[in-house]
Amino acid sequence: MPSLAQFAADAYLNEMGITSPLFPNESCPQGDCTKLAGNPLPTLNDDGTDVGKVAAFMQLLGAPPLPALDRRTWSGALAFASVGCTSCHTPSLKTGPSAIRACDRQTFLPFSDFLLHDMGSLGDGILQGAAGAREMRTAPLWGMRGTTRYIHDARATTLRDAVLAHDGQAAPARRRFLRLRPASQQALLDFVGAL
């Protein structure tokens, strides 16, 4: 989604069935528009006010702070960079100009470039907008310390499984990860798990 407002409006429509000016048309259940015949409110369900509030809330959420890293996790950060993870999982980015001071030219640590990449067999087969079946947006790694399932569809139960599932453009980084000594592999996994 190109904006938080569109993201919120899309979620309102597709997750809750609430229409808004950005998405004024109901989604037909299982593609069957006859099921909309009983819709109690066929006009707009939200005039954009609620969608706008949710978008503003998301815009002003603080980024998860980087935890204090010990010697082992710092060595994992070096391994993370050395195998090429940072080519997609970019450690830091800077916001552009914003009228909102808290969002104006701020450096943040998402560990993502937020771009689409061909992920080969890791792709989920979903066509969405310009994204092909093998393409996925680089998931941010911030907040990983609070996660127990990995990859966008939770198919990986360990960080190691998530790394080993990387394919396509990420396959070279996966191969370099596998060439690391076991202690360095674990340090890398500890680093990602601490984010």
Gross CATH architecture of the largest domain: Orthogonal Bundle
Q: Strand tally, please?
A: 4
What's the total helix number? 6
Class based on secondary structure composition and strand pairing = mainly alpha
Strand content: 5-15%
Q: Report the average pLDDT across residues.
A: 91
Ends apart, CA distance between termini: 25 Å
Can you tell me the CATH superfamily of the largest domain? Answer: Cytochrome c-like domain
Arrangement of strands in the largest sheet: 1-2
Topology pattern, helix = H, strand = E: HHHEEEEHHH
Q: What is the domain total for the residues?
A: 2
Low-confidence stretches: none
What do these coordinates show?
This protein has six helices and four strands, in the order αααββββααα. With 195 residues, it is mainly α. It has two domains: 4-59, no CATH class; 71-194, Cytochrome Bc1 Complex, Chain D, domain 2 (Orthogonal Bundle), CATH 1.10.760.10. Strands 1-2 form a two-stranded antiparallel sheet. A two-stranded antiparallel sheet has the order 3-4. The longest helix has 13 residues, at 4-16. The model has no long low-confidence stretch (mean pLDDT 91).
Could you provide a short overview of the structure?
With 195 residues, the chain is mainly alpha-helical.
Name some characteristics of this structure:
195 residues, mainly alpha, Cytochrome Bc1 Complex, Chain D, domain 2, 2 domains, two-stranded antiparallel sheet, two-stranded antiparallel ribbon, 4 strands, 33% helix
